[in-house]
Design brief:
Length: about 325
């Protein structure tokens, strides 16, 4: 990711010097903590890369780019509470260290901080930026609610799942690119293409995450492989396996349903369900869908009327996401 390093380094520097508040320290320490846990920083990078399509002055967009990252981490802080997650990026989650009440309140302050960082946008773009940010933030919450609803449903469709991950994950990547286009004074068609690029890359990214959860290298993936299988999480892989086995192999469908209802045999369950996926060709099917969404994103990028040299960092970023193992 050679061409991306200047963007990532500048983002980290801006995050390091961002002050959210000082007192009471119990309110602000958790914010510094979660922001220091790292992550790919792909959302703010996308905003800077989008600005770089049109101008060399991408450093001027650092604060609104960081706003996107602060909002993203706000959602993670609250998601961890809802999921009762003990770890985030290999470290204790905020609610584990400080308790649910502090995590909720600190998360609320992060949302306020995201808006504060967005106020640095030029006045002529501010209303449009905030309107789009508000819509995106609501959609992320809609996606989270759909995901929670799916846990108690046995009739989730592939289409519903794709819509859920589009809302929960992809629209924020779309907004990150769209934001860069808006504050660069790009025309509406170009801004729409940037959003389309980001949304499709986001869908590819999340589907690749589902794939890695089953087939990733545990040492590289950074979390337990097979976790989605153990939790019966309704990923694209599980939904496709249920659909294919129901129509083509009643025995495999019955076996898969049996493992879904099994608890307390985690290692056996992961091995057995993975073998069912292998028999049904789910890995190849998932890889094809991942590639399809990334290719759709790259087609939208190709339609943007700027020089190929300007597009290189975004192409490189897409290639990195497609090839990632963690």
């Amino acid at each position: 990711m050679t061409s991306l390093q200047p963007f990532l380094a500048a983002i980290q520097s801006e995050i390091d010097k961002t002050v959210y508040g000082e007192s009471p320290k119990e309110l602000y320490e958790p914010i510094d903590y979660i922001m220091e846990l790292g992550g790919k920083r792909m959302r703010p990078a996308l905003t800077l890369i989008a600005v770089n399509l049109f101008s060399d002055n991408w450093q001027n967009a650092l604060k609104p780019a960081v706003a996107v990252e602060v909002f993203h981490n706000f959602t993670l802080m609250h998601d961890d509470i809802m999921d009762a997650a003990p770890l985030r990026r290999g470290q204790a989650t905020v609610h584990e260290k400080w308790g649910d009440d502090v995590a909720i309140l600190s998360g609320d302050v992060m949302l306020v901080a995201a808006y504060e960082l967005l106020t640095t946008v030029d006045d002529k773009y501010f209303k449009r930026v905030v309107k789009r940010f508000n819509r995106t933030a609501a959609e992320v919450c809609e996606g989270q609610q759909f995901d929670m609803n799916f846990a108690t449903r046995d009739d989730v469709t592939e289409e519903e799942y794709l819509n859920m991950i589009r809302l929960k994950t992809s629209v924020l990547l779309g907004f990150a690119l769209e934001l860069g286009g808006i504050i660069s004074d790009a025309d509406d068609k170009t801004i729409g293409l940037l959003y389309e690029t980001g949304v499709n890359m986001g869908l590819g990214f999340q589907l690749k995450d589902d794939l890695l959860d089953v087939y990733g290298d545990p040492e590289k993936f950074g979390k337990q492989v097979g976790g989605d299988i153990i939790e019966n999480k309704k990923t694209w892989l599980l939904l496709k396996a249920l659909e294919k086995s129901k129509s083509s192999s009643p025995e495999l469908y019955k076996e898969l349903q049996s493992w879904i209802s099994t608890t307390g045999k985690d290692a056996e369950k992961v091995a057995a369900v993975t073998e069912i996926y292998n028999k049904l060709g789910i890995k190849t099917a998932a890889e094809n869908v991942v590639n399809m969404y990334f290719e759709k994103g790259l087609r939208a990028l190709k339609s943007i009327e700027v020089g190929d040299e300007r597009k290189l960092p975004l192409k490189e970023f897409a290639a990195y996401l497609m090839a990632r193992e963690s």
